[in-house]
Amino acid sequence: MDSSTAFELAGTDAVGQAAMAASGQVSAQELLEAAIVRLEAARDLNAVITDLFDRAGAQAAALDASGVLRNGTAGPLAGVPFLLKDLGASLAGAPEAMGSRALRTHVAEESAWIVERYLGAGLVLFGKTNTPEWGNHCTTEPSLFGPTANPWSPSVTPGGSSGGSAAAVAAGIVPAASGGDGTGSIRVPASCCGLVGLKPRRARTSFAPAAGHGLEGLVNEHALTRTVRDSAALLDAVTGAGVGDPYSAPLPDQPFLDAIATPATPQRILMATGSPFPGPATAPAVVAAVEAAGAALESLGHTVEPGSPAIDAGAVADAIAVLHTVSNVGLHDLARRHLGREPREDEFEPSTWVMVREGFTTTGAQYADAIATVHAQTRRFAAQMTGHDVLLVPTLLTGPPPYGLLDQPRGTTRAFFDVEFATTGWTSLANVTGWAAVSLPLGTTDDGLPVGVQLMAPGETVLLKLAAALESAIPWAGRRPPAWVGG
């Protein structure tokens, strides 16, 4: 495949590329070759930190030889090149540093259940994307691999912790890449890079075989995409429980990709433009984007009312801080076992070291109280949403933030999250409550940078239906960043 065709394919989403393979227009090997051409053209972004070209080539060749792409049984994603976030998406035999200098030589011993589902769907896995250490930051600038550039502007972060994946998708290297979200790590980079970023509801996917959940249920795995249908198709591929999982979400009534073909029934939508946490006022461009989304939803037959469910912001921030300190102690232990010795302070990011040291002194009572607080605030939130089906809010309270803001130590873990929440606002509430949430690229700042708008609901189907309707009402498909590889 020549380079011009490879760059032309940058604008075709995953479902579209799979359809081309199924019709015989291209082979899986040709799609992979084209993605590698685009990746090489975008190396300056530092989005991909591990190449898996040989492995992917063998996988694509096997798909082509098997005939499954042409016989109509392969599914809507088979043959599509795909990138894995280097955290939460372990691939047996592949490097897995998780953004940490202490794990720079770590190799995954087994594949995550969700990665096995990607492989089962026929996605061709050809690289791993940059991420901050252990996903601790809503920006992607680890000292191990260096910062990932935002395709929209070199002066602002692509977000995090799924920033490498977001940059790769926004630039057109791939139509979709995996991500994970503990306080906004899919939705924040989606907002910064002008993408669709869905955090599924709690327990929609499995953490097998390594765990039953992440951060006591705060973390969910999914992907960054440019189209709503790609997000729906990918969610279909990974929906369900692994063997022996402690709990799972109820299966949807129909596949998500099928569901978005019909509009949502009229929804009662509560709209807030402020933040549940203390901090500066929401930027005017963000307020305008939320209000424009509300007006579009009203024109589609939904009821939109101003209002805001209140939570105990201090209690939520305290609980999230405690859960992170304990999680970081667990990851510190992983590093100790990998190294065969105690890791040194200089092998961690300064902010990570603060979390680790606090975690060493966190008591069982504090940990239990943090979990109880999360559950109590979830009930408080849900009770105040009675009478409404969906919450419409900003993704970030600002445009894409600058580098060096969201990864710095602040003395304590709680102070670290106070700074984060002053920028991210609502994102962590979806993690605390377990609700599904999607960020959509519905606005821009005065200087043309992306602004995300967020919808939250107990389940994904209604969000994907609303997202599909907004994709038509306020189209974003034609927006391209300056670093778009398609020319």
Automatic annotation (TrEMBL):
Keywords on record: Transferase
Catalyzed reactions: a monocarboxylic acid amide + H2O = a monocarboxylate + NH4(+)
E.C. no: 3.5.1.4
Pfam families: Amidase
Signal peptide positions (record): none
Amidase domain boundaries: 30-458
GO molecular function, one term: transferase activity
SUPFAM superfamilies: Amidase signature (AS) enzymes (SSF75304)
Stated family: Belongs to the amidase family.
UniProt-recorded name of the protein: amidase
Protein's organism: Mycolicibacterium chubuense (strain NBB4) (Mycobacterium chubuense)
